[in-house]
Amino acid sequence: MGRITRDSMRGRLQDAMVHLRKKYRAALKDDEMQRAFDELWPSWSSEQGAMIFAEVLSALDLLLLTAAVDNRREIEALRGELEGLRREV
Length: 89
Description:
about 90 residues; mainly alpha; elongated
């Protein structure tokens, strides 16, 4: 594996992730949206190798990010409902 420098794509990606966690997450008004954002972090961390080939963040990227966070919120809500139904059975 090559040396990782501050100006590497990996470094820029990690900086963008940290910036999003500090600024974007804090700006989300809904607590469930913030928790949904937190659920994306493990995927982002484990898939950095795949993401280093893409540039971040354009306006479209931000729109898609918001959609992904909203989708994660819905998934988590459905997961909770499913667990409740399983307990009833």
